[in-house]
Amino acid sequence: MPLGENIFGTTTLGDVQKTLTEVLTTTATSLASVLDVQTFKEAITTVMTSEASETDKQTFYETILSTIQSSSSVSDISAFAENLLTIITSDISVEDMIGETEILRTTAQVEATVTSPMVYYKKGILNEVDFSQQLKDIYWGRVDPSDLTLEISDADGTFSALITAGEEFRNRGMKFRIYEPLETPQVKFLVYGKVIDYSLSPGKISFTLALQNLEEQDAQIPKKLYETTDWTETPTNIINPAQDLGKPYNIVFGHAKKVPLICVHSNYTSDYYDFIIGYGTIHSNHNNKATTVNIYRNKVLVPSNEYYIHGGEATIQYTGSSFGLTAGNPNPYYLTINGQPVYFAFIRFLKEQIDFSGNNPYELTADLWGLKLSGSTVERNFIRCIQYLLSNTAWGLGLTVETAYFDAVAPLMADRYCDGFIGGSQFNAMDIIEELLFACQGRLFYTADGKIGIDVEVYDPKVKGLFGWKDGKEENIISIDEYRKTAVREAIKAFALQYGYNAWEGSYIYQNRRSVMDFGEEQVMESRFIRDHTTADKITCFHKNRMTYGDTRLSITVGMDGRTHEIGDIPKIVIPDWSINSAFNIRKLSRTANTFKWDLTSYDAAMFTYIVGDIPDDSNADDLPDFSNTAPTAPTSLQKTGSGTDQASDGSTIAYFNVSAIAALATNKVTLVKFGYKKTGESFYTYVDGTQSGTNWYAKINGLIPGLYYDLIAVAYNAFDLPSIGNPTLTSQLAPGDTTAPAQPTGLSATQGIGKITLSWTANTEKDLNHYDVYRDGIKIFETRDTKYPDTNLSYGVSYTYYIKAVDNTGNPSPASSSVAQSPRQTTTPDIGDGAVETPKIKDQAVTIPVDAYTAGRVDISSGYWVTVQQCSITSTGAPIHITACLNVWNTTANPSGITAQILRGSTPVYIVYNAFDIAAGHQDSMSFAVRDTPGAGSFTYYLQVYAVTTMAVFNRSILLLEAKK
Q1: CATH number of the domain to which 670 belongs
Q2: pTM for this model (two decimals)
Q3: Nearest partner of 108 among 85, 86, 131, 87, judged by Cα
Q4: Where do Low complexity bias regions lie (predicted)?
Q5: Is the domain of 214 the same as that of 286?
Q6: Residue 917 to residue 582: CA distance in whole angstroms
């Protein structure tokens, strides 16, 4: 019967003995004696006819057959038969006999690189070796390995012959495969070490090894890196070498975000450019890329019409014509592994992906639905991702897995989603797998036939075994080694999981946090393969519960009753002295030949009860793009739907516009539309927030000045506060005004002044009053917000008539006020009376004539005549006289005028300036000049005169100054 086939219950004893004989006679080694055969048959007969379970019978049978088949000499078989005979003839139970037989089978397989190729030696271990203290429990950390000594049978002189031939063993790497026989299912460990010492004695050789690795999972999973993969086969149509060689190709699981794309081919003639996504067939393809693919160029979303995506099938699926691809043609990108092509998913762009400088390639990343694995859609189950990462020969580790175990536990993790990718840098395979195991509460083990299995930590209501200490019933606990609560230095106050890895920033977007105890440290874990909020919350809840309910720890030693227990089993522990009568979870175990030490934690069904925690309330589904750098679509249909006027809080009249626009309900969701306004001709808008109703947005733009023109704009914003571009505008929109004019101003009066008239009136009470217009002789001469106005530079003896109007913000004028008439007065008293100054105190005897004394009134100038506009007198002792003149002239006529100015001493011209002014109609000009005159001693009068080409007037507010001093 083949190993692994259940022979008991369906096969007769004669058939079993016949099969055993065939095995013994076909082995490479001749049998030592018929006695050995008889011993084996007797042992099997004893077990088959006992009350042992079928499982124990099967295990016993396979133990004998596998031991015989692995023996390499007659002496090995004879030694095994002799030991077996001792067991079956001793006074022990069948159950103990089965256990002792399994111990006999413990072997070590030594692989020493003493020759090339590697030579394998199979020898029995003679000394008792306890590997259990070196084993790693994946939940409670690792134990540093120590040196280990193995004594191996060398009866046939295999090793001694090698050493005699000069082979040096020290510092050689060796690997031992150890079968732990008391494990169900049996677990096989690989022990790696380097020989630091050895010795020979008759019939055996002793090795002392410096252990390098005794970890169960590391032994199962080789130290393989996902390293750089360059093309071993170059497709013939690649023109230029890949720009990104040196980066690993991606392995994409679930809904992966921001996966880096790797340029592999540029065709400048046909203008298309290919980028590799990664290994295998992914769910995303050209037909469904609108929902399963988002491409980013320097973090900005790329329109879907710019690229085609091939999902990694063996043949091209595209049926269009614009991408240079033909459906049915072979996929050009593949590697040959183990004689089979491994195809890649790739993206083809229609334009070269370089920036405007023409030198620097854009950074391209993608959101993808990843590998289908064995299904028709993307696989997101952590168990399946681990299974294929272990077993896939192209992009995985190529190991053999027991699919039945993975099939059994995968449904238990169906509500947790694996979303991420391996790529961008190098990762150790064990680190990736441990991260996935953490997310699904799993652990790996070897089955009896050397395949990798998996189980997950879920609630199991079945208690496996009852163990008591002074309980008056079981009494099967040998010793209690420790009973305690978690120490303060080991306690976890809070557990946090960081997830939602952002490859653009190299950081995590989200954190799910749970409080555990009132004291201790915070433990923070990270996962690149978790994006779903609920998945993160369930994982955090479980680990929080395990820390909370597993706070009580117990270490005990049990006897052979614990031989079938494994890590994760739930025995019930009864210790009356300490009031313990509850289930515990085996977290760690170690074995000797007859005893088992367990490290246990308290166990409760509540550990596996999911209570919803704080989950982020974001609406961005897994397949939606990241719009943090992509502007939303601009609004459309901007229109002014109405306008009017309102009264402000101060009672003034203000105008408003009612506006609307449409913002489509796109995936780059518009969260706000703002409406802007500015006065026509200005540069900057002022914005108001719109109100949403479906795709329509509305706003009332208030506070406008009636009668002015405004420009309008609508701008959309997304959740990242990015504004749209290419936004619609409306220009030169007239703000409406009111039609009610202010009341007629009252109380207007006019007061005489020297050369001026001062007006005053009673203020209007309208809130929207803007200013007053002042009229003289029916002509508007001034605007003012005050209720007083001085009209200066008036001509003496001339009567002037005034009235005013009030004007509001809209520009509505009030009726004219009542008119008033007045004329300026002339001074009759000199500023300095006779005898006021007895002795001059002025330096250089200079005399400056006060300006007001010579401020000209309105002086009309007729064409062809000199007109004196200023004069002053001075007495000189003969020193030179310095004369300064300045004047400001306003042309009130409709014709241009040229002005000539001169200074005279009496009737003698001292200085003349021809065409000093050339003044356009309705404009003014000014000038000043200085003259030096030496008339000798005496009193002199100086005059400032002007001459006009055409009739005009000196502007009535001009300041005309003539100054003479020594």
Answers
A1: 2.60.40.10
A2: 0.53
A3: 131
A4: 813-824
A5: no
A6: 116
